[in-house]
Amino acid sequence: MQRLTLGDFELTAVSDGDYFLDGGAYFGVVPKVLWERKVKVDEKNRVLTGLNSVVVRNDELTILIETGVGNKLPEKMRKIHGMPAKLLDNLAASGIAPEDIDIVINSHLHFDHAGWNTVTKNGKPVPTFPNAVYYSQKEEWVHAHENQRDGVSYFSDNYDPLVENGQMKLLEGDGEICPFETQRPEALHCVAELLGRDFARQIPPIQACGDKRFLHHVLRWVACHRLTQTADDFLKIGRHGWQPSKGRRRSQN
Questions:
Q1: b/e map of 213-251 (b: 16 or more CB within 10 Å)?
Q2: Which of 73, 132, 172, 177 is the most buried (most CB within 10 A)?
Q3: Domains and CATH numbers, the chain
Q4: 155: closest CA among 94, 87, 67?
Q5: Which residues contact 14 (CB under 8 A, 6 or more apart)?
Q6: What's the pLDDT band for 163 if we cut at 50, 70, 90?
């Protein structure tokens, strides 16, 4: 578990554990002869990858970015990917109860980013974080219902009950979630950018990365979305690294 303090903000990296993804899907166009030097596959050509989430806290709010795989995967998916289901335990180890979460941000709605949005009680999905407002992009929610080629990665129980009861807000493009947080869409996979309000302290913007299609974490370089054009220096937090990871990006003239 990693903690980082920036000004008035405390960032805690928490994990839902490790799970398996197909090596070819994970690294995409990168030839296997390159990535297998660093990453070994099992007999099914799967690589073990991380499920990293970020908690951002200040005196006013507690925000959870991404909710991992959760504990509701069908048996077939469990055999393929595994289901570590460690997020709530790791939150508890950090002194955070589900009731403490004020805001949940899903960069997108794939099962490995939104799984703990809900839990099953009495046969029905209910919010895991009962006091939280959830945020994602409307375009992503629409896409989740279009039965596209990545349709196997969507499970409506992770988000539809929250939309129906009004607990999940669907943003259309850029949108302010709270005074120091914005969400930007990027090819259906958005990033959450946490912007320190006290710029006099020179707090760098923080970018919690979702997935970039067909590229998650190449040879331990963080795979991210479009870079913020207005920032010369910002911290990036990786999502699917083998352990919670962060890096600094600076522009060069």
A1: eebbbbeeebbbbeebeeeeebbbbbbbbbebbbeebee
A2: 132
A3: 2-183 (3.60.15.10)
A4: 67
A5: 1, 52, 53, 54, 55, 87, 90, 91, 94, 244
A6: very high
Reduce the DSSP state of residue 200 to 3 states and report it. Answer: helix
Sheet containing strand 191-194, edge to edge, reads: 175-178, 181-184, 191-194, 206-208, 233-237, 246-250
In the chain, the amino acid numbered 92 is A
pLDDT tens per residue, range 72-91 = 999 999 999 999 999 999 99
Residue 133's alpha-carbon distances to 70, 128, 223, 234, in angstroms, are 18, 11, 28, 26
85 phi-psi bin (left φ>0, alpha ψ -120 to 50, beta other):
left
Report CA-CA distances (Å) from 176 to 10, 13, 63.
20, 23, 14
| CA pair distance 51, 106, nearest whole angstrom | 13
